[in-house]
Each structure stands twice: as C-alpha cells, then as structure tokens.
C-alpha cells in the first residue's frame, strides 16, 4: 500500500540476496554452522554502504553500522563472521575522507567497530578472510589490487597488537 516500506533486499532461493530497483546489495555472508540462520550483507547508500543482517526465516533486516565503503567490487569487501557469530570482519575507512582502507571487527550487538589493521597511508587493506578456527585473518595490502601482497594477522587475544606477517612480495 501507499507509504508501506519494502525491504530493499530480500532472501531469494537458497538464501541468496535479491535486489530491487531501490537499492543494491552485495557481499552475502553466513555465520558458522550451528548458529541462528542469518545473512550479513552490504547495502549501497549515498555516502557508502550499510552492513545489515537478515534472518533467513523471517526476512527481517537489522541495521548494524554505516561504512564509508562505496565501491561495488564485492571481492574487495567480503564480510566474515567470527566463529561465535558475534562480530563481522570487513574493510572500512576511519572516516569518508580517509585515504586508505583498513580492516575492522564490527560488533553485531553494539554496532561498534574495532580497527584490526593499520596500513601505511598509500596502501589499502582489502579482501579479508577469516580462518575456520577464527584465530587468523588473511588479507591483501597494497596501493591497488594489482600490486597487493597477502598478509596474515593473528587474532589470538594473547598476540593482540602484533604486526601482520607478509606472505608474498612484489619484488
């Protein structure tokens, strides 16, 4: 009816995200097995994108946080759930005017973000992936995707603040 709000994204088929003319969604991600059946995704906004979580059963959307990420290449900005299903790890900026992208851990309960990587100003940290045990984060770092190297960062609480280990090199 008139004035009724429709979700811009909805669950379609085997949990895939469908889009309408009103918005575009991408970066579908599911929490580890055994958890509540939810899908995390990004929705483009005029200033970036919102991270949303949707129940597969009800189709209800829950806003988590707004990010400054606007590019539409989903392989740069994947969403990874932590093993406990309480956080999503992905790329964002400190603010919309920031020159580079960093990787953050976003709390689903509080909507707060914690910066995990600290690249040099002329580099971006993108395309992150969390190990199955949730203790290691792999990501690409470089001035652009064609010149990026692969890094590993320990997320073990006992190694907090450690520097990432560089696995590849553009000699």
Can you characterise this structure?
With 171 residues, the protein is mostly beta strands. The strands form four sheets. It has a four-stranded antiparallel sheet, with no helix packed on it. It has a four-stranded antiparallel sheet with strand order 7-8-9-10, with no helix packed on it. The protein is globular and about 45 Å long. 30% of the residues are buried. The protein is 0% helix and 44% strand. The model is unreliable at 1-22 (pLDDT under 50). It is built from no helices and 14 strands. The protein has strands spanning 9-12, 16-19, 25-29, 38-45, 48-55, 61-67, 80-81, 87-92, 102-107, 113-115, 124-130, 136-142, 149-154, 165-166. The N and C termini lie far apart (61 Å).
Q: What is the topological layout?
A:
Elements: E1 9-12, E2 16-19, E3 25-29, E4 38-45, E5 48-55, E6 61-67, E7 80-81, E8 87-92, E9 102-107, E10 113-115, E11 124-130, E12 136-142, E13 149-154, E14 165-166
Antiparallel strand pairs: 1-2, 3-4, 4-5, 5-6, 7-8, 8-9, 9-10, 11-12, 12-13, 13-14
């Amino acid at each position: 009816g008139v004035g009724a709000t429709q979700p811009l994204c909805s669950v379609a088929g085997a949990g895939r995200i469908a889009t309408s003319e009103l918005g575009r969604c991408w970066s579908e991600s599911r929490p580890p097995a055994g958890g509540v059946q939810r899908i995390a995704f990004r929705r483009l906004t005029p200033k970036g994108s919102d991270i949303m979580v949707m129940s597969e059963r009800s189709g209800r959307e829950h806003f988590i946080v707004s990010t400054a990420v606007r590019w539409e290449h989903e392989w740069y900005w994947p969403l990874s759930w932590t093993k406990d299903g309480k956080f999503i790890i992905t790329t964002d900026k400190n603010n919309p005017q920031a020159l580079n992208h960093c990787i953050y851990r976003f709390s689903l309960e509080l909507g707060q973000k914690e910066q995990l990587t600290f690249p040099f100003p002329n580099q971006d940290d993108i395309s992150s992936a969390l190990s199955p045990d949730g203790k290691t984060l792999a990501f690409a770092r470089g001035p652009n995707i064609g010149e990026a190297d692969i890094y590993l960062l320990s997320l073990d609480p006992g190694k907090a603040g450690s520097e990432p280990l560089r696995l590849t090199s553009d000699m």
